Structure formats: structure tokens, C-alpha cells
Amino acid sequence: MTPDNRGDDVTDPPVKLPELRLPEAPPFVILVADDNALVRNLVTLLMQQDGNFVLSAADGHEGLELSRQYPGRIDLVITDVIMPRLNGSDLCAHLLEERPGIKILVMSGGDMSEIFSQNVNLPFLPKPFDGRTLRARVRAILAAPAQPPAIESVQF
Question: Which fold would CATH assign to domain 29-145?
């Protein structure tokens, strides 16, 4: 008999480990470019709360520089259309050229008819929007197979 008065033929019950939940998706890397600090910070915060790593830029030029300096993959760019120094259209064109396969979500509070009249084949989110709508659009875009639009089609 062992010191705890059990026979040698008795085995301890298996240890039950807590269930480990795997994340639904790996953390994504998202580049946010918007010259409106309030919108940029809100989008950044929402994306970070979902477990993503966010690169945040105050305009297209800064977004392009961040992209060029960041050595890893960037899964998605969320950009305003109208920004100083480098607008969203030009930012998208550069990113599609430099990072084939990057996904794009453009947003704007500008004149919708002008944006749609340009026959843009990119996911679009009109401003203002709420967090639930933004998150749903981002999840859908990231879940879709990579099919980057032709650079020529990125016109606003």
C-alpha cells in the first residue's frame, strides 16, 4: 500500500485542463490612413480591440511611408478618400503596386455620387458609420479571397 492507503493498481484520474479557445482569425495587420484624427483614432481603437495590429497614418503620404518602413505583411488598408499631400486613390494605387494582394476599404463623407460615378471597384464605407458596421465590413473583406483590383481601376 502506498502512503495514501491506495493500492498500486489504482491510477489517478486524468487531470482536466481548461478548454483552450483558438482565436477565430490570426491577428491581422491593418494600415489606417485618415486626416481626421477623431476618425483615425476611432478606427484604430476598434481594430485594436478586435486583436489586430494597427499602423496609423495622418494622411496618404504618411501611410505610404509607414508601409514602406514596415517589414511584415499588411493585410488591409482602411483609407479616407480625400486627404492632403497624398489622397486615398493615390495611396491605394501605390500600395497595390508595392504590396500585391493587399486588401482595401475606402471611406468618405464626401459626395457619394461623385465617388460612385468613377466606377470604383473597391469596398466602400460611407461616413458617418458605427463601430458594428465597420467591424462587419472589415471581417468580410479579410475573410474574402485575395483578388486585388487592377491599379487602373483605383480612381475616385
Answer: Rossmann fold (3.40.50)
